[in-house]
Amino acid sequence: MGTVTEVEEIKEHPQFHFHLYWLSTSRRALNDAETLLDLIEKKNAEGYFVAKPLRVNATPVGPHPMSSCEVWVPIEYFGKFYGWVAQMRPSTVSLMIHPLSRHQLLDHTDRVAFMGPSAPLNVETLQPPVMEHSPAQYPELGLGYSAKS
After folding, report:
1. How many angstroms separate the CA atoms of 20 and 15, rounded?
2. I need a labelling partner for 51 at 20 to 30 A (CA). Which of 8, 45, 88, 140 fits?
3. Ordered structural domains, the chain, with CATH
4. Given pLDDT bands bounded at 50, 70 and 90, which one contains residue 125?
5. pTM of the entire structure?
6. pLDDT digit string (tens) for 51-75?
7. CA-to-CA distance for 115 and 3, rounded, in angstroms?
């Protein structure tokens, strides 16, 4: 797998996904994940950070090998969210963190980091190596790819 080193590519990472992972067969892990997601929603509503949980997947979806929930975080709140979740994450929940760029395969392999135990991904499900457009999410917030220059 190659690495992109151009400065313009490095600037192309203003949004991240934090994927919460937990064992599908563990009721305790599910409860812990739901509690963490509730806390994320609460802190988000209080304006402590911007972190948007998407749908909860009870079974593997796409490249993700177990139950999961994707949380979108713009670069403006990456450090604050990362520091908070590092302290709040229960041991039954792992996090897979990656940038959002046009290079979906690189984002899920070479640019990925785990908090807690890692999990192998099914990268065959990912889109072509380079997408035509950067994956902007929540443009109404004016953050990440939608930030005003």
Report:
1. 16
2. 8
3. 11-146 (3.30.70.1240)
4. confident
5. 0.84
6. 999 989 999 998 999 999 999 999 9
7. 22
